[in-house]
Amino acid sequence: MKLHENQLNLIRHLIRFNLMVYQDCLEMLDTDGSKNRTALSYAFRP
After folding, report:
1. What letter would DSSP give residue 20?
2. What's the CA gap between 32 and 46, in Å, rounded?
3. 10-22: string of b/e by CB count within 10 Å (b at 16+)?
4. pTM score above 0.70
């Protein structure tokens, strides 16, 4: 899964200001229902 820069910025903003925890962000990104958090976490990496 490849995220657009604006999606990454929004997620980082939510985490930075404690509006959302990292695990919640991963669940939000799981649009296909795979529940594979490891694969989803790679979306944050360059």
Report:
1. S
2. 22
3. ebeebeeeeebee
4. no
